[in-house]
């Protein structure tokens, strides 16, 4: 550290002390013990160092510095502050941080900086009591705020840049441990106490005779071990800055101190303080009443909400509320809503992958539903590389020398991701293998090249992945429910009408939506569910789940081990939305038979494409384009001619033409060849063979699945697939293809 402060030469001149200069020293008669009463001529024994201001009497041994000299002359702090002295031209290269340095900087506090602090609501008495000062460090001038540890020893300066610099920069020495600014206050007050964000906010509150403390290192750094020192049985008010970090930090701190048996409140500053506004803005700029902080702006934590306003919510009622902004897509709406709601459980979260072409609404559904949930619980990401995710979401933990990514009770929505590389790194998390998973990533740095970093993933989030890429690796497919938005004519028509209504008068549309009583009540219901803190959800008659699942899946596949988890998560989520009408014991509720029935109803509607590891968009394309085109080509042929030539395959061009006929838009040829047809072939729905008359062309033939009705989808071999060789031969004119398991 580099310090410049008042020069000893200037101070002696002001005090009328005669001295002579000798190199880097000033020599004067001793000011303390009369050592130079008998000295003659230029003889003197008190030596001052011009650079450090330290003195040493060579006769009586009196030693000290500028601070002790000022005390000897009886100079008060206010006198020195109102008469600031020119800093030294040759400052010391380094300065040991101690009480002496704190006092030196305090004595050097200029009048204009004191006035600046006064304007920020910090009184002179508080400035003096807390030794705020002024010094030059790291080549710049700073307001110095001395920080003490729990034992009262000065540990470091919190520095606030010269106000004239204009950027309000705050810094502190690298590597110092976070402290409570106000340790000394805790044992000396039994009344209410405020935990705020920032040293100057704390000092502004103290200036209003309001006891306050703060962490020295920011909103998210309040430590669990500090709660013991905060004590129990207090009234604690948390008031952080009016921004995202402040809101998250306030809730984090409130949760810690509330668990200690305190009466806890979160103060939400009025919007008039502005984005990022703080206590100082409220007290000074707004001239706010301090009493209102503990009245109309304070809410008890955890917040108590009247649950008598709620009633049991059916699936149909939920569909109607969500239908205010999301047209049709009934199963998609319910499943997505339940997925996001499942975040408020301990381990019943599940994942969704929306796979569909662009402009079909795959990201609209999850983001629109997310607007119903508390904003701080939703993390929406556009493009995100695997490494960036861990850096952006994670917090650095110096003990483990790595990043901690806490995703407990969070909803992650990945919007229009171009690839699934991030999912590959999150596989253990998505599978719910362990609550805490260690991940190692590599970063390329300019100085060290490739460097390994440690990441600790904590908790289970609800994950929704949206991509226009239709092809998805089987390892990811088995970890997600695969959904696709509907693309039928009526849905598009209703969507267009809703868009016109919204764009014609955006403000009126927003007001109408925000004031809708059912929607408002649903948002309040979700917030209350979160505050209930449900950890476990049991299933009362689980044997019914077993019997029904096995009856619908005669031949079991490895993916069924994960499918059953998603099915039980749906059951638990249905119970969660009506938790007040379910058996409850502490933080555990029990799902009943109605929840089981509703979950199976949803599962039956979406299970076909899950069984085939296909996004519904691909499966619907198979049914509405490939099967229809194949039937059109083969249905009007005479029996005898069909027996001679066999069934006719479809060319890719014929599929493209049929797709345009059905959907009114062209299908990308490369997407058809590279993604859609290989996926259908892997699922066993089609086979591709060379055209006998032109080996350069490939023909597509549907397999026996086309003869299975929807009612038969869960019966027979492989979950609804007939393996009849006669059927296959009949469809292909007597030639049986190699269908793998089919």
Sequence-ordered SSE layout with sheet pairings:
Blueprint: H1 8-14, E1 20-22, E2 25-28, E3 46-49, E4 55-57, E5 63-64, H2 66-72, H3 77-82, H4 99-107, H5 111-119, H6 124-129, E6 133-137, E7 140-148, E8 154-161, E9 170-171, E10 180-181, E11 193-196, H7 199-207, E12 212-215, H8 227-230, E13 235-239, H9 244-258, E14 263-267, H10 279-285, H11 290-293, E15 298-301, H12 315-322, H13 330-341, E16 351-355, H14 364-370, E17 378-381, H15 386-393, E18 395-397, E19 402-406, E20 411-414, H16 421-425, H17 427-430, E21 436-445, E22 449-458, E23 462-467, H18 474-477, E24 481-483, H19 489-504, H20 506-514, H21 517-532, E25 536-539, H22 542-552, H23 560-577, E26 583-585, E27 588-591, H24 593-611, H25 616-634, H26 639-645, H27 652-663, H28 669-682, E28 686-691, E29 694-702, H29 725-731
Parallel strand pairs: 11-12, 11-13, 13-14, 16-23, 16-24, 17-20, 19-22, 20-23, 25-27
Antiparallel strand pairs: 1-2, 2-3, 3-4, 4-5, 6-7, 7-8, 8-9, 10-12, 14-15, 18-19, 21-22, 26-27, 28-29
Helix pairs in contact: 13-14, 13-23, 19-20, 23-24, 25-27
């Amino acid at each position: 550290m580099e310090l410049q402060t008042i020069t000893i030469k200037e101070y002696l001149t002001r005090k009328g002390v005669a001295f002579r200069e000798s190199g880097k020293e000033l020599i004067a008669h001793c000011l303390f013990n009369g050592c130079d009463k008998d000295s003659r001529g230029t003889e003197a024994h008190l030596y001052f160092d011009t650079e450090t201001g330290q003195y040493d009497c060579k006769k009586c041994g009196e030693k000290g510095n500028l601070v002790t000299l000022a005390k000897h002359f009886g100079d008060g702090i206010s006198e020195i502050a109102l008469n600031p002295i020119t800093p030294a031209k040759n400052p010391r290269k380094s300065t040991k941080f101690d009480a002496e340095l704190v006092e030196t900087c305090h004595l050097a506090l200029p009048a204009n900086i004191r006035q600046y602090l006064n304007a920020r609501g910090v009184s002179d008495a508080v400035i003096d009591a807390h030794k705020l000062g002024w010094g030059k460090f790291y080549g710049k001038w700073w307001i110095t705020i001395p920080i003490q540890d729990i034992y009262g020893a000065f540990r470091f300066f919190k520095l606030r840049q010269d106000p004239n610099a204009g950027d309000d920069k705050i810094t502190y020495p690298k590597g110092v441990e976070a402290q409570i600014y106000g340790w000394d206050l805790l044992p000396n007050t039994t009344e209410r106490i405020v935990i705020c964000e920032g040293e100057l906010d704390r000092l502004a509150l103290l200036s209003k005779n309001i006891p306050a403390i703060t962490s020295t290192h920011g909103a998210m750094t309040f430590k669990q071990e500090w709660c013991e020192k905060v004590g129990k049985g207090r009234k604690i008010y948390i008031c952080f800055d009016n921004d995202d970090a402040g809101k998250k930090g306030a809730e984090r701190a409130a949760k810690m101190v509330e668990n200690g048996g305190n009466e806890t409140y979160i103060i939400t500053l009025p919007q008039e303080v502005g984005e990022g506004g703080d206590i100082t803005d409220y007290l000074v700029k707004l001239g706010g009443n301090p009493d209102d902080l503990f009245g109309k702006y304070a809410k008890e934590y955890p917040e108590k909400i009247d649950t008598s306003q709620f009633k049991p919510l059916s699936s149909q009622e939920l569909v109607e509320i969500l239908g205010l902004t999301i047209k049709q897509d009934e199963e998609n709406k319910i499943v997505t809503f339940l997925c996001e709601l499942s975040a408020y459980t301990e381990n019943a979260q599940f994942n969704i992958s929306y796979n569909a072409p662009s402009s079909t609404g795959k990201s609209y559904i999850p983001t629109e539903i997310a607007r119903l949930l508390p904003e701080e619980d939703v993390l929406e990401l556009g493009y995100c590389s695997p490494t960036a995710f861990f850096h952006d979401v994670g917090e650095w933990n110096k003990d483990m020398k790595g990043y901690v990514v806490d995703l407990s009770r969070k909803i992650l929505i990945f919007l229009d991701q171009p690839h699934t590389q991030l999912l590959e790194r999150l596989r253990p998390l998505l599978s719910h293998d362990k609550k805490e998973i260690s991940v190692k990533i590599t970063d390329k740095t300019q100085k060290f090249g490739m460097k390994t970093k440690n990441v600790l993933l904590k908790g289970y989030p609800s994950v929704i992945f949206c991509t226009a890429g239709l092809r998805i690796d089987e390892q990811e497919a088995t970890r997600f429910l695969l959904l696709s938005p509907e693309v039928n004519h009526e849905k598009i028509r209703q969507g267009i009408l809703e868009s016109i209504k919204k764009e014609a008068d955006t403000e009126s549309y927003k007001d109408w939506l925000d004031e809708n009583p059912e929607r408002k009540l649903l948002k309040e219901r979700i917030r209350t569910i979160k505050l209930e803190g449900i950890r476990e959800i049991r299933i009362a008659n689980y044997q019914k789940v077993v019997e029904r699942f096995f009856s619908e899946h005669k031949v079991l596949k490895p993916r069924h081990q994960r499918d059953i988890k998603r099915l039980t998560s749906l059951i638990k989520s249905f119970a969660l939305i009506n938790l007040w009408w379910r058996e409850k014991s502490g933080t555990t509720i029990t799902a009943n038979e109605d929840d089981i029935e509703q979950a199976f109803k949803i599962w039956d509607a979406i299970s076909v494409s899950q069984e085939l590891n296909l996004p519904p968009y691909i499966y619907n394309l198979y049914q509405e384009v490939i099967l229809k085109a194949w039937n059109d080509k083969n249905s009007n042929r005479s029996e005898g001619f069909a027996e001679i030539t066999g069934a006719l395959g479809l060319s890719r061009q014929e599929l493209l033409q049929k797709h345009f006929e059905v959907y009114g838009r062209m299908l990308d040829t490369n997407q058809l060849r590279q993604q859609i047809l290989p996926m259908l072939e892997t699922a066993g729905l089609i086979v591709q063979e060379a055209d006998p008359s032109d080996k350069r062309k490939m023909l597509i033939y549907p397999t026996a699945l086309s003869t299975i009705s929807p009612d038969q989808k869960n019966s027979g071999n492989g979950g609804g697939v007939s393996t009849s060789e006669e059927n296959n031969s009949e469809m292909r004119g007597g030639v049986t293809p190699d269908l793998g398991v089919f």
